[in-house]
């Protein structure tokens, strides 16, 4: 039951992030460039037709959806890495005698050092510190943070932190123990991701093989596939083959995603 609950919470978090996340102008431009290349390759190899390339642009929203999902997963992974550093820094400062309200500036500095290029949580710490200085309660700030990103580990950590403050428990001990447990869970998830990485590479190679075979036949023996271009039967056959390739890719992606979530 707990495993099913964990899967349900992960699925809801991913769905919420997909609704909230919007592609930036740079990400939109990159997605367009990628799809231009992809539609050009598919349109030429399977149809030898510019009209087919133009028709493939009707599927551009699906490609954007996939790119959004990929970027969300990438951001979630970065957030998990930053959350690990965040919790370690907070636990160290609390053990050193700092009050929770005074830890945010130092946690921000630690995150900037650990992630010099870009740190999502460092920016959030700066924002939370600004709100705290105008007398907003720290508990509410952490709850807002967990709602903004819908990360399961962040939500669990925030819930424990708020309950510990409200009930007056040993905050240092509770935060330290919670950090340890969450880090163990994240380490297990990371190990699963590493194990699955080899399968991801195999999946990408298998996806490229049909395109490579068609390209090889077009180059080595141009007339061999002429019967599949320019006729209704050939268009139908190539469309069915392309559909099977895309269906197998989507199926493999779903299997990998479920494996990582478990």
Can you give keywords for this protein?
single chain; 262 residues; mainly alpha; 82% helix; elongated; disordered N terminus
Notes on the protein architecture:
It contains ten helices and no strands. The relative contact order is 0.09. It is elongated, with a radius of gyration of 24 Å. With 262 residues, it is mainly α. The chain has one domain (2-261). The protein has helices at residues 2-20, 25-47, 50-55, 60-95, 104-114, 120-132, 138-149, 152-167, 171-220, 232-261. The model is unreliable at 1-8 and 13-19 (pLDDT under 50). The two termini are 13 Å apart.
Annotate the secondary structure layout.
Elements: H1 2-20, H2 25-47, H3 50-55, H4 60-95, H5 104-114, H6 120-132, H7 138-149, H8 152-167, H9 171-220, H10 232-261
Helix pairs in contact: 4-5, 4-9, 5-6, 6-7, 7-8, 8-9, 9-10
